[in-house]
Amino acid sequence: MTVYDGHHVKLFVVTYYNNDPVEGYAGSKVFTTKSAAKRWIDSEVKDFLSQEDSSWFLFDEGFDDTVSLRDREEDDYTTLEYSIGEQNLLYMRECTHCDSPMNEGYCIDDGLEYYCSDSCLHHHYSPEEYAELLETGYGYYSTWDEHE
């Protein structure tokens, strides 16, 4: 377990966007290394292209860390795009389960453990166990900033 008093970290954020006019969506995932971000994109693209009834094809592998897929059955060429961008962030804690940097999340037993999400928390504590920690004051959700 590592407690941070405010460290800057370079993170690589993969943004994915689907321009489908009916079911369009955007999202992002954060990685601590560019190679991890690229591996995730490669895995996503491979999954899309390997589906038995897939009409998607690799449209463009950009030089600026962008990969685009298109649906050949759509008249408007629905596109799914993945791009990697760098961000420098200040973070105050690190998740005990997945090591993700965090500025908000669950704190257990006055900082012995930190969890960035419900998923990470529930790998270690059931909802009932966390409710008991909450009730006894040994667990809480918080945000941290550089002034704490």
SSE topology sketch:
Elements: E1 3-18, E2 25-31, H1 34-50, E3 56-61, E4 66-71, E5 79-94, E6 101-102, E7 104-108, E8 113-115, H2 118-122, H3 127-136, E9 139-143
Antiparallel strand pairs: 1-2, 1-5, 3-4, 4-5, 5-6, 7-8, 7-9
Task: Describe what you observe in this structure.
By secondary structure, the chain is an alpha+beta fold. It folds into 2 domains: 8-87; 95-143, no CATH class. Helices cover 22% and strands 45% of the residues. It is built from 3 helices and 9 strands. It has helices at 34-50, 118-122, 127-136, and strands at residues 3-18, 25-31, 56-61, 66-71, 79-94, 101-102, 104-108, 113-115, 139-143. Strands 1, 2, 3, 4, 5 and 6 form a 6-stranded antiparallel beta sheet that branches. Strand 7 (104-108) and strand 8 form a beta hairpin. The longest helix is centred in the N-terminal third of the chain and has 17 residues, at 34-50. The radius of gyration is 19 Å and the shape is elongated. Mean pLDDT is 78; it is low at 1-5.
Question: What are the defining features of this structure?
Answer:
three-stranded antiparallel beta sheet; 148 residues; 2 domains; six-stranded antiparallel beta sheet; elongated; disordered N terminus; 3 helices; alpha+beta
Q: Mean of the pLDDT scores?
A: 78
What is the subunit arrangement here? single chain
- What would you call the structural class? alpha+beta
> Major β-sheet, in short?
6 strands, antiparallel
Would you summarize the structure shown here?
The chain has 148 residues and is an alpha+beta fold. The chain is built from three helices and nine strands, in the order ββαββββββααβ. Strands 1, 2, 3, 4, 5 and 6 form a six-stranded antiparallel β-sheet that branches.
